[in-house]
Amino acid sequence: MLDVFVALSLLVIGSFAGTSSNNTGCLCTFGQPCWPTEDQFAELESQVSQPLIYPVPSASPCYPATDPSGNCTQVAQEWVDGSWRSSMPGSMEAPNFESFIFKNGTISACYLNTSLGASCEQGNVPVIGVDARTPQDIQAAINFALQYDLKLVVKNTGHDFLGRSAGRGAFVVWTHNMKSITYDAQFTPQGAPANETYQALTVGAGVQWYEAYATANQNGRMMVGGLSLGGSVGAGGGWLQGGGHSALSPTYGLGVDNAIEISVVTSTGAYLTVNNNQYSDLFWALRGGGGGTFGIVTSVTYRTYQQLPVVMYYVQANVTNATVMKELIGGVLRLQPNLTDEGWGGYGSFGNDSMDFFGIIPNVSTTAANISTQPLTDYLLGLEVQGVSSVAGFYAFDSWYEWYTYLWSEAGQNGVNIMFTSRLLSRDTLANRYSDVAEILYDCQASFDMIAGGKVSQIDPDSAGVNPAWRNAIVETTCGVSWQEGATAEEIAGLTDQLKVWIKDTYDLTPQDGAYFNEASLYEIDWQYTFFGSHYTKLKEIKDKYDPYRLFVVAEGVGSEDWNEELTCRC
Ligand SMILES: *[C@@H]1O[C@H](CO)[C@@H](O)[C@H](O)[C@H]1NC(C)=O
Ligand SMILES: *[C@@H]1O[C@H](CO)[C@@H](O)[C@H](O)[C@H]1NC(C)=O
Ligand SMILES: *[C@@H]1O[C@H](CO)[C@@H](O)[C@H](O)[C@H]1NC(C)=O
Ligand SMILES: *[C@@H]1O[C@H](CO)[C@@H](O)[C@H](O)[C@H]1NC(C)=O
Ligand SMILES: *[C@@H]1O[C@H](CO)[C@@H](O)[C@H](O)[C@H]1NC(C)=O
Ligand SMILES: *[C@@H]1O[C@H](CO)[C@@H](O)[C@H](O)[C@H]1NC(C)=O
Ligand SMILES: *[C@@H]1O[C@H](CO)[C@@H](O)[C@H](O)[C@H]1NC(C)=O
Ligand SMILES: *[C@@H]1O[C@H](CO)[C@@H](O)[C@H](O)[C@H]1NC(C)=O
Ligand SMILES: *[C@@H]1O[C@H](CO)[C@@H](O)[C@H](O)[C@H]1NC(C)=O
Ligand SMILES: *[C@@H]1O[C@H](CO)[C@@H](O)[C@H](O)[C@H]1NC(C)=O
Ligand SMILES: *[C@@H]1O[C@H](CO)[C@@H](O)[C@H](O)[C@H]1NC(C)=O
Asked: What pTM, to 2 d.p., does this model score?
């Protein structure tokens, strides 16, 4: 039945492929004469399972300020909650991507702070779209976008630091409600021999990590997945397609190393199940080549692992002297390769006078955990004579899931205007350039994620499309800027300039190390190499093969160099 549908939709698309451009080379956005009429949208609505959606910015219930259309108290309360934000098609996790800055400096936005006196404007939020529940819904949406040459964006949860889930005047395919989850202890990929089985979890595109983890745990399993407060990051969306890191990555590899099979709708309307046996090129590209680029993923099947106990190590240090703080940053970085190779994964941050870190390791005793972290604990104690005070300790958890629930259940972290850059610091950089890197990380008060090394380094760099720099990486560092809403375009430009300095300094120091596509800025230098390394050319070929209509384009995504800055006109 589905095959017949696919064949039909291929035919339908075939018939208007030739007319899909109006020869300006530009896509149609809301407000232009080319924008479809109400009747044309009604025709689309008749082909999909849900009413069309009309996304609005997160704060719109607070307007008009004198007589709010909704419950503004609730909006303020939920502002930082990633699950609340992802439940709305117009809400981005970082609200700056809901706003649009005109060339003349005027900002179109909808601020939570109504005292700023602005009206609520649509900004960068798409105006209409499809609440997709099935591959057929997505096929209909793709047909429609191609027929009218619309600017299309794909939004899942909206956890996105490059604004890829939004687009001014765009038509959106919203995958959040594709919530199916199935555990199969005997999963065989399509086309694989019957004896090739996995204990696997298949998640629909809209499933979020908190849901995936809970279902895995009900089956005694855990998995490599994203960690954020509230667990609202999508398990089957951009996280995976950009690489996907986890505190379990030093033990089990990246998200891309743990995906077994992916289902995807391409711009030709084809609904494909891709894996190592069929459409293996597309399977390769979807594992690290970037979200919103090759097609719309509808489900992902992951390996799972036996639920194991974990030990958490935490350490905190205060420093009184800038010179010593920089020395500490370098010293802590230098110790990371041994820790990741033993299986430790975790998250830390450097202030200008302090450091915090916590990490976990599965399936070892507290005694063993103590032995392997001793070099770090001792290193910090050794700095006591230079005015550093530190504390370290351990918590044992009966299972990884218990740790997850303890630390990550509460919502938060979102709703902040933010831009940042990342760097995947290699083994070589940490051994030889740690003190130079420390200068920059001190300056930006960096965070560091210990989510590579170990197993990540042992996997063939060419086995997945993801940036080969990951295979040399030990930690990912991030430097960022944030601001209060209401900041002027000039103030934001000033922060952007600061960010660009950090990007350039880190790039110059570590030109081979690359950055993580999902945690980066719109201003990365040589982004093709920085995000995809030597895989770029192959990724572009696969992109051209599976997206011949060039429907999918995102900022700094594969093939986006063929578009203008707004991603609305081909160069
Ligand atoms: C062609 O596209 C341009 C840019 O999107 C738009 O301004 C124009 O109205 C379109 N023309 C037609 C005939 O649809
Ligand atoms: C608005 O939301 C707040 C917080 O969730 C709640 O306490 C209050 O009852 C709501 N008000 C109305 C009128 O629904
Ligand atoms: C800036 O440009 C936008 C879009 O063209 C326009 O709506 C706005 O009025 C302009 N603002 C100023 C201050 O000129
Ligand atoms: C809201 O904006 C007003 C006016 O700029 C400012 O005084 C106030 O501190 C802001 N409130 C919050 C919560 O940011
Ligand atoms: C599956 O069966 C084939 C042929 O009998 C055998 O060569 C292969 O090793 C088996 N694979 C697994 C994973 O058991
Ligand atoms: C900071 O520490 C360094 C190294 O211990 C020392 O040389 C320097 O004098 C200290 N600076 C201050 C301001 O205490
Ligand atoms: C890492 O471990 C090896 C082997 O145990 C040891 O020789 C080396 O000194 C350690 N590196 C650091 C930086 O502590
Ligand atoms: C240290 O960081 C704090 C908070 O970011 C900042 O207010 C302070 O000025 C910084 N101090 C120095 C010496 O850079
Ligand atoms: C956990 O550790 C035990 C004891 O060292 C070992 O026998 C077992 O194989 C490990 N389990 C896994 C899943 O790694
Ligand atoms: C870790 O080992 C050291 C040295 O044996 C010991 O002093 C310390 O109490 C241990 N820490 C914990 C939390 O077990
Ligand atoms: C570091 O400073 C913070 C804030 O003053 C304090 O809460 C913490 O206990 C201190 N940690 C150490 C190890 O001294």
From this structure: 0.94
